[in-house]
Amino acid sequence: MAASMTMGLPGVRLTPGDHICAFFRGARERDALLVPYLREGLRAGDMCLCVTDDPTAAVGELVAESASDPELARGRLRSTDSESTYLADGCFVIDRMLGFWETEVGGAVVRDGFDSVRSVGEMTWALSGRPGVEGLISYESRLNDFLPRYPLVALCLYDLERFSDGEIVVEILQTHPAVLIGGELVENPWYTDPHDYLGRRPATAS
Predict the structure, then answer these.
(1) How far apart are CA 186 and CA 206, in angstroms?
(2) Packing angle, helices 166-174 and 136-146, rounded to 10
(3) Nearest CA among 180, 178, 187 for reference residue 33
(4) Is 197 left (phi over 0), alpha (psi -120 to 50) or beta?
(5) CA distance 153 to 176
(6) Spatial separation of the C-alpha atoms in residues 120 and 152, rounded to whole Å
(7) Where are the alpha helices (DSSP H) in the chain?
(8) What is the topology classification, in CATH, of domain 15-199?
(9) Do 179 and 173 form a contact (C-beta atoms < 8 A)?
(10) What are the distances in angstroms from CA 136 to CA 81, 179, 180?
(11) 117: three-class secondary structure by DSSP
């Protein structure tokens, strides 16, 4: 397992097990975080699992690049969309999405032999009004129990132009041990252990 991983941003290094909340504004800022993160992962030989609202817009050029660049071909990139993952069957189910990551990450490590995995989730699906999306925060908290099982870094993308409710932003912060903002990765003083956090929240359907 790699002791640390480069982020693709100056001075930012990652450690397997990191669960990072990345705040940005608009597609340009998103891509300025997302593309270097994935490109560095491919160069390092990582499995990169990317779930965004529109994969063609978010990482289309990188997918094409990785198919022809031997340096990027050291790793593998799987890019898919929120509708077929987070919102499969038209709703969000926490256990189903955790099962998706178990299958994809576990398969990459156990079956395919990858030493490190990078995942990305663009979280605007949670604003769709679909059944189950109220489970977003419980899902984020439960991810903290899942991540240590694998050599995995998880990057959760939150557009502050969309997530404008201050109370939700506070809850997002409470479920991520690290925050990436303004190009800096910082330890999150508001993070709350998932067992403590979920123990005081109303029950949410799994």
Answers:
(1) 30
(2) 20
(3) 180
(4) alpha
(5) 12
(6) 11
(7) 26-43, 55-68, 94-106, 136-146, 166-174, 194-199
(8) Rossmann fold (3.40.50)
(9) yes
(10) 17, 17, 19
(11) strand
Domain ranges (residues) in the chain: 15-199
Give the contacts of 69 (CB within 8 A, at least 6 positions apart). Answer: none
Pick from 108, 146, 124, 155: which is nearest to 7 by CA?
A: 155
Q: SS3 of 163, please?
A: coil
Strand 5-6 to 13-14 pairing: antiparallel
Angstrom CA distances, 175 to 17, 125, 136, 140, 198, stand at 14, 18, 10, 6, 10
CA dihedral 105, 106, 111, 112 (to 10 degrees): 20
Residue 75 is given by DSSP the state: S
Helix (H, G, I), strand (E, B) or coil at 175: coil
Q: State how far the Cα of 44 lies from the Cα of 70, in Å rounded to an integer.
A: 12
pLDDT in tens, the chain (206 residues): 456 788 988 889 999 999 999 999 999 999 999 999 999 999 999 999 999 999 999 998 898 888 889 999 999 999 999 999 999 999 999 999 999 999 999 999 999 999 999 999 999 999 999 999 999 999 999 999 999 999 999 999 999 999 999 999 999 999 999 999 888 999 999 999 998 888 775 555 55
